[in-house]
Amino acid sequence: MARTPSELVRAEPGPPFEITVDGRAITALPGQSIAAALWCAGVLAWRSTRGGGRPRGAFCGIGQCYDCLATVNGEPNRRACLVPARPGDAITTQEGHGRAGLGV
Amino acid sequence: MGDSSDVIVVGAGVVGAACAYYATRSGLSVTVIDRGPVAGGTTGAGEGNLLVSDKEPGPELELALLSTRLWRELAEPLPLQIEYEAKGGLVVASDPAGMDTLRELARGQEKAGVLAEEIPADRLAELEPHLAPDLAGGFHYPQDAQVQPALAAAHLLRASDARIRLGEEVTGILTATTGEVTGVRTATGTVHAPHVVNATGTWGGELAQRAGTELPVLPRRGFVLVTEPLPRVVRHKVYAADYVRDVASDSAALQTSPVVEGTPAGPVLIGASRERVGFDRTLSVEALRRLAAQATALFPVLAGVRAVRAYAGFRPYLPDHLPAIGRDPRVPGLLHACGHEGAGIGLAPATGALIAGMLSGGPLPLDPAPFSPARFVGGAAP
Amino acid sequence: MPDSASEPYDLAVIGAGCAGLAGAVTASELGLRVCLLDGSGQVGGQFFRHPAPALGALRPQALHHDWPAFAALRQRLEASDTRRLLGHQVWTVTRGSGELWTVHALSGVDGGAERPVRVHARAVLLATGAYERQLPFPGWTLPGVVAAGGAQAMLKSGLALPGKRIVVAGSGPLLLAVASSLAAAGAQVPAIVEASGYLRYVTHARALVANPRKVLQGAVHGASLLRHRVRPHSRSAVTAAHGTDRVEAVTVSRLDQDWRPVPGTGRRISCDALAVGHGLVPQIELATGLGCATRRTPDGTHALVLDGRQETSVPGVWAAGETGGVGGWELARVEGELAGRAVAFRLRGVLVDPARVRELRRRRDRMRAFADAMAVAHAPRPGWTHWLDDDTDVCRCEEVTARRVREAAAELGARDARTVKLLTRAGMGWCQGRMCAAAVACLAAGGGDEGVPPSPERRPLAVPVPLGLLGSPAGADEAGADEAGINEAGADE
């Protein structure tokens, strides 16, 4: 019986690489979305809500709910469940709308 | 099932709500009937503009100035949730000729009591830091304000103490043998009243017809683009000088002029398109394209921001761009309060106050003659 | 394939799941010029979602009982002339001049280097699938609470699990499949919680008997669950999720006939994730934007009205799969082929194989009957609203609580989801009500059976569009024969 998803499908991915979450390094596999890499690292939340400041992460997993919005390499509001992880990606926990810098 | 009151208001949009509010405050008993929910028509599709800046001197501006005052008063007792903001308007011109046009407009408006301050090009950024740098200047109108229209209608209606019957369509107007209105028939029964107020907005012609009269209200479609939630990036209601021209135009073809504003909830709203295509909701990619292009020309920072929603609304258009407020000379007891085109939210309180004054015999806050539905009698629109 | 930008395709297929794949390859094999668009970088849709090639999965079929059927469709696609625009999200479809349709899309997966792409075609096949229906409960916004189909999707494509001990809950046949694949992938699944009573299938025994394959699938999942010692709870629901920054436990309560929790039956189950969902909602906004007629399905969603040839009420616009009512991948494949054949006949007079079409229709009708029986069995009952407390966020995006939704209905004159939205912002956020509209409609109707909106939500923009792209000049980027567009999202198998 398989103990991990990778064992189940007998994955032989290319070399793993690092991405960072709020500066902390985690390992991602080539072909994984950012959300999948975060889940594999035990990270379930990477956004705080605009109203209550509550933690959120991936929910629908298919790009429909927009709960997984993350700031990726400085660009806010990217759906982590769709965006492929790339070596060196810097994910930062998105505060609310993620565009505080635009406020006047 | 029978029911009676002094006044029946047909339409639970913002104008109907304001009529009910001021009529009940005049001591009348009011029943409000709508075939849909509260704010189900054009009110729910509006941006909630309370503007004096876009109106040329004349009766509509008088109505707008009165409304501006009344909205300020209403914002006190009504809960915060109507999102009343005295944010002010900023009209900008792209070239010196446009500035000349704005100056001329402002001079006339000032005589009528409008506050307007010329903003030279180098001061625009103080008011709106994200505005494009190459504009010729603009005018600031501190009296312009905004409410969230659906909330405004719902809270006005609740504060009115009127009886409210939603989801009930008025299928006919009851009249006595002598011709006076005695009430309305609905899908589920009759309601009696000696006065019926037609506050059905864009559908005002339909109700007039059921009463055996006519009112030439036509839909003038507009699209609004709604962005993702943002911090405050636009402080005022900002629009280009072309907007005033488009509002006043009679063309049926697509016209767009950029109108950009933030909301307390976060999204930026982008209008305004106008076209007369009947009640067709089909998305016009061309209208959206122009709105987006014009808005990003005014505020380049919006280019990287996403539109998450677009919707269409149908402004109640009357051929002379003035609302119909007052008694229908052909049907005693029938009053009209519709045809405000794109200004219904702004003009609602003054309309309600006028209607209430006419119903109760009280003093009228301004001369209603220019708005009289009698101007359409005889088939010749003015 | 058209050789100039001005020459339209015969058929634009939107969605590369089973329905869209079957439709595209059928039409292409019958000689039509076909363009297939999908938001994902890979074909397969939600059901046959699979790891990206870079993950090097040698046995993707371990997560799919029916992998050979998909592999066959994919092979036919690769052998065909079908233009593939993967990683293209369609935001609207409009009617152009001269019986032509224009499909407006954004290339590039969500952000980054997006650009506008337009595809012109003489017919459109909408195969846009479905998304999951959610019914909120206290704690459902906690990290670790994920959609059941979402957990499945993240596992199938990213080989990721949300936790080690995952409760699966909600209603509908998807739950069995989710629980069994999570368990197969190494997760512990302490409970599978189904709100309906499975016994209700019995009243639709004829449809079940006519679909032995479905029964077999259920049995396969059932056996797998037994093997993994997954405890089934029927007529029960997760009525609360507990935790502060992530889920630590759930409360499972027994439900009465109307799905009201039975007082005193709540039991706490510790877990570090919950996968939850209540069936699927057809994704039909592109169709409703074109004015296609809809119908209410037996489980209270809206699906497209289709004729016997899979055409919508708008001539020239066809649909297949979940858009016409949720029914699973086999039905989708059959409908896709029917649609592909019907379009070929309409546009080119390609004679159909009458025996084949008769057979396909027979299978479609049988599977539709089965899907309807399932929908009836799992349709949410109005008592579910008793799971909510006043402070539960119903709208996840705009954080609108059940209290505010109820107030809008009771005190402010809202009678439907649209008015609740105007008065509370529920459904106005990024997801445009996809996660909350079903719940809001129930609450607006006071929890009664009237909780189905009379018409589907209008979403003129099917996905968010950057204003800079929306405002780019018309005609700038016709995608008739833009070779760069092929497989641009790249690296499809």
UniProtKB/TrEMBL annotation, chain A:
Keyword Oxidoreductase: yes
Keywords, in A-Z order: Oxidoreductase
SUPFAM superfamilies cross-referenced by the UniProt entry: 2Fe-2S ferredoxin-like
Entry-linked Pfam families: Fer2_4
Alphabetized Gene3D superfamilies for the sequence: 2Fe-2S iron-sulphur cluster binding domain, sarcosine oxidase, alpha subunit, N-terminal domain
Protein name (database record): (2Fe-2S)-binding protein
Organism the protein comes from: Streptantibioticus rubrisoli
Automatic annotation (TrEMBL), chain C:
Protein's UniProt keywords contain Oxidoreductase: yes
Pfam families, sorted: Fer2_BFD (PF04324), Pyr_redox_2 (PF07992)
Organism domain of life: Bacteria
Annotated region (Disordered), positions in chain: 472-493
FAD/NAD(P)-binding domain mapped to chain residues: 9-323
Keywords of this entry: Oxidoreductase
Domain (BFD-like [2Fe-2S]-binding) ranges: 394-441
Protein name as catalogued: FAD-dependent oxidoreductase
